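dumping this here before i forget
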Amino acid sequence: MSLLELIERADERALAASALACLDRCLPLLAGPDGPEPLRPLWASCENGQEWATRLTTVRTAMERASVPDGPAALVRAMLGAAPSDFAAEPLREWADACSLVALRIHGRFDAPPGDTPRDEERLLKLARGGEPATVGPLVAGDLERQVRILEILAETGGTAGSGAGLRKALDLSTEGRRVLRAVMSRRARGRG
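structure:
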């Protein structure tokens, strides 16, 4: 099943967690390579939406204090700002779709040489997200695979006694992706220095 189909079929829990996972993987842009994990409180609300709006406000306030440069980091913060306060399927679906695309674009920028924008990015991402063959870089391919896997895990465990374990697996996959992006950022920084 394609990423877009998985997003379309996902419930509130999966939508919130998948969007949050996309932002979580891009955290090194906001928090630096060894920075805090400001999104952690929101993960606790993904199961049933309990205290979602309150925790979202707290996380947004904390992130507004952080100094954010333009570019990819600003996109991540904008996506956090676009998060719906209502824990409802339609607004969460729109947010999850937007976060998915932003995360893939950011990974695409790190696939490309510094300062370059990937060619034909929109068309390639549309094909890849729709399950069609597309020539994307290794970072985009890896993030796309993580997004699909996270939604599959959440769909498999939704409404079961293991639903908390599904969220934990999603968080683990997201953490793995964050480590990959940190490593790429570190290599780029060393290359400039």
